[in-house]
């Protein structure tokens, strides 16, 4: 009886499952042709030093302008690209494109690039980073690679070795979405990290007393360990004031600037650099 019920259920769900599988296939097919068809682009979001108010660089954020689907957000296609392996050439493209853009920024401006676990585990990642820097002429100390805890979770020797190698070159490593993973604190002990980026869900909820306490604690932890702390998703003056009062070094979010086209961010960075020289 249980068996026949199972069969009935299967018959009931099958069409829905088929639709999901097919939609997913279609997405994979579209994604696969998107790179040669040059449908990807990068936006850049400014990052501010809270104490000085200076813009110190920007983070590259990938966009997919699909003719069939419109603009697709990275959260919708990066996981698929990770599963199909496309993220390796796509990530390499992003790295080169980001470095090329940063090459025409004012002196010392940082460029932050997101890196997937799949990229770091694939052989040759360090080599592709070195090549992107050499090709663009951007100094290693101006490049920041943002990784998430999933990168560190399997504790593979390759990943640790690669991170050390990159850091020895002067490249900075930032731990993105900090606080949302499983054992954030342990990773800080075992892996070479220069910066932590507090996940925007904490910043959004900072009006809550407990959340505010967590944010203060993360900032204190960073200060104790000599790790720079950046707050993500800063949208209000009140949030920025709280972060400043608690000694948070950097902020990023719609209040400071939305992700913008390469030409616009270049103009912004140049205007700020000029301003800081003269004023
Ligand atoms: P992320 O690295 O944590 O990037 C920050 C995300 O927060 C971006 O979303 C940004 O647009 C958004 N954001 C910035 N300020 C605010 C704010 O004030 N309020 C709110 N509500 N959101 C804000 P986006 O561009 O959709 O990117 C989502 C995620 O996709 C990124 O999170 C990153 O994990 C991933 N991603 C983006 N580009 C790349 C890439 O080139 N490679 C890889 N592997 N992942 C990428
Ligand atoms: Mg990031
Ligand atoms: Mg983040
Ligand atoms: Mg994220």
From TrEMBL:
Span of domain EAL: 24-273
Protein name: EAL domain-containing protein
Organism: Mesorhizobium huakuii
Shown residues within the full chain: 435 to 713 of 713
């Amino acid at each position: 009886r249980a068996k026949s019920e199972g069969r009935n259920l299967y018959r009931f769900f099958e069409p829905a499952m088929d639709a999901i599988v097919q939609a997913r296939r279609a997405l994979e097919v579209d994604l696969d042709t998107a790179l040669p068809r040059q449908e990807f682009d990068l936006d850049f979001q400014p990052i501010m030093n809270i104490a000085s108010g200076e813009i110190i660089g920007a983070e590259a954020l990938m966009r997919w302008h699909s003719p069939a689907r419109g603009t697709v957000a990275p959260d919708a296609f990066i996981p698929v690209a990770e599963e199909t392996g496309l993220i390796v050439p796509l990530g390499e493209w992003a790295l080169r494109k980001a470095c090329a853009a940063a090459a025409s920024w004012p002196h010392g401006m940082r460029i932050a690039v997101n890196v997937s676990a799949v990229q770091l585990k694939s052989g040759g990642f360090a080599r592709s980073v070195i090549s992107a820097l050499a090709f663009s002429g951007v100094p290693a100390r101006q490049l920041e690679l943002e990784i998430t805890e999933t990168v560190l979770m399997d504790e593979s020797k390759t990943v640790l070795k690669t991170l050390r190698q990159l850091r020895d070159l002067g490249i900075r490593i930032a731990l993105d979405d900090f606080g949302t993973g499983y054992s954030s604190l342990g990773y800080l002990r075992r892996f070479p990290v220069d910066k932590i980026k507090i996940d925007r869900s904490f910043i959004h909820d900072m009006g809550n007393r407990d959340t505010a306490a967590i944010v203060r604690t993360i900032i204190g932890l960073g200060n104790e360990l000599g790790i720079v702390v950046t707050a993500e998703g800063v949208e209000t003056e009140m949030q920025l004031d709280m972060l400043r009062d608690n000694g948070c070094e950097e902020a990023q979010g719609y209040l400071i600037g939305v992700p913008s086209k390469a030409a616009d961010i270049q103009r912004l960075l140049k205007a700020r650099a000029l301003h800081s020289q003269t004023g």
